[in-house]
């Protein structure tokens, strides 16, 4: 009985930690990210730019082999969903590598970099445990898909299609 209760508690706890969120925490929104022009911009101000638009956020890093392998699929998503805005949030370790990655992979969209990489304040605030990571926000600003990874492209595409009917 005791083992069953422990197992049940573990399952419930894991399920709740993986729950879908429909908004970002105050901590995430107040965190600043580095823009390509060198300025610091709050995540909240970045998101305000996309009000009224469907937004696909890709959290990535130039050093991440899974991220690089997923780039053709990202470009396919962009081609299939031209009305969707694209925001790339980098977890790179250096500004130089981040900018080289953007240019090398010809990533179309807006780009910002976390100041303290994956395990920093921003990464923790968005529950970042893997890159690439995809988040979809609808035209009202509500998160409709909070945690998707590179194996979820079919799901990502169907959500984007549904939002842009």
From TrEMBL:
Gene3D superfamilies: Glutaredoxin (3.40.30.10). The keyword Disulfide bond applies. The keyword Cell membrane does not apply. It is found in: Cell envelope. Residues 22-165 form the Thioredoxin domain. InterPro entries: Redoxin (IPR013740), Thioredoxin-like_sf (IPR036249), Thioredoxin_domain (IPR013766), Thioredoxin_ResA/DsbE_sf (IPR050553). GO terms for molecular function: isomerase activity; oxidoreductase activity. GO terms for cellular component: cell envelope. PROSITE patterns: THIOREDOXIN_2. It comes from the Bacteria. CDD domains: TlpA_like_family (cd02966). Residues 1-19 form the signal peptide. One of its GO terms (biological process) is cytochrome complex assembly. Keywords: Cytochrome c-type biogenesis, Disulfide bond, Isomerase, Redox-active center, Signal. This is Thiol-disulfide isomerase or thioredoxin.
């Amino acid at each position: 009985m005791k083992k069953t209760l422990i197992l049940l508690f573990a399952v419930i706890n894991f399920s709740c930690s993986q729950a879908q969120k429909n908004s970002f925490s105050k901590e995430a929104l107040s965190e600043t990210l580095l823009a390509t022009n060198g300025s610091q911009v709050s995540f909240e101000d970045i998101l305000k730019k996309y009000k009224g638009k469907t937004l696909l956020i890709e959290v990535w890093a130039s050093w991440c082999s899974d991220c690089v392998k997923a780039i053709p699929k990202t470009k396919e998503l962009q081609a299939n969903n031209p009305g969707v805005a694209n925001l790339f949030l980098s977890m790179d370790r250096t500004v130089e590598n981040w900018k080289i990655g953007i240019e090398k992979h010809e990533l179309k969209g807006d780009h910002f970099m976390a100041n303290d990489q994956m395990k920093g304040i921003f990464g923790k605030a968005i529950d970042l445990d893997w890159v690439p990571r995809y988040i979809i926000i609808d035209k009202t600003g509500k998160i409709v898909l909070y945690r998707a990874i590179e194996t979820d492209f079919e799901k990502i595409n169907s959500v984007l299609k549904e939002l842009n009917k």
